[in-house]
């Protein structure tokens, strides 16, 4: 009986190791986008660029923001190994004041949850 359990254990371990051979990996060019000082009403769209450095297709299942003032947009199609993609973020620049928001990315990557950040400040008056 001990031999049967040992064989099953070794077999399951081997299957688990082979299943881990192909895994998606997400590598962002930067994990923080700094808007700097921007004028009220200016273009609030910024982009987080990333590469799938793994060996399996990367599927981004969900992207959420810490605030309704920030609207993220994820790629709909899988990102193949070695290919790049982007997550677009639109901040409501009608809100004057500091920008400190988090964008959470959920995917099938080896690190399934990544938190990206945007920062900056929206000025009420026109900038020189």
Cα Rg: 21 Å
Q: What is the helical fraction, as a range of percent?
A: 10-25%
Give the termini separation: 81 Å
Number of helices: 1
Report the β-strand fraction as a percent range. over 45%
Average of the residue pLDDT scores: 87
| SSE topology string | HEEEEEEEE
Query: Which structural category do the helix and sheet elements fall into?
Result: mainly beta
Report low-confidence residues grouped into runs of 5 or more.
none
DSSP strand tally: 8
Q: The biggest beta sheet, please? A: 4 strands, antiparallel
Cα shape: elongated
In short:
With 128 residues, the protein is mostly beta strands.
Features:
128 residues; 1 helix
Give structural notes:
- The protein has one helix and eight strands.
- The protein has one helix spanning 2-19; strands at 26-28, 32-39, 45-52, 60-65, 70-73, 84-91, 97-107, 113-123.
- It has a four-stranded antiparallel β-sheet, with no helix packed on it. It has a four-stranded mixed β-sheet with strand order 2-8-7-4, with no helix packed on it.
- A hairpin with a 5-residue loop joins strand 7 and strand 8 (113-123).
- The chain is elongated, with a radius of gyration of 21 Å.
- The model has no long low-confidence stretch (mean pLDDT 87).
Please render the helix and strand layout as text.
Blueprint: H1 2-19, E1 26-28, E2 32-39, E3 45-52, E4 60-65, E5 70-73, E6 84-91, E7 97-107, E8 113-123
Parallel strand pairs: 2-8
Antiparallel strand pairs: 1-3, 3-6, 4-7, 5-6, 7-8
């Amino acid at each position: 009986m001990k031999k049967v359990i040992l064989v099953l254990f070794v077999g399951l371990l081997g299957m688990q190791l082979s299943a881990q051979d192909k895994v998606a990996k997400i590598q962002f060019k930067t994990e923080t986008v700094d808007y700097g000082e921007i004028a009220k009403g200016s273009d609030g769209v910024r982009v987080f660029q990333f590469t799938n450095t793994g060996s399996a297709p990367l599927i981004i299942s969900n992207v959420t923001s810490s605030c309704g003032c920030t609207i993220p947009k994820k790629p709909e199609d899988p990102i193949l190994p070695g290919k790049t993609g982007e997550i677009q973020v639109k901040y409501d620049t009608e809100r004057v004041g500091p920008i400190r928001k988090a964008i959470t990315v959920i995917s099938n990557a080896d690190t399934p949850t990544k938190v990206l950040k945007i920062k900056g400040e929206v000025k009420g008056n026109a900038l020189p």
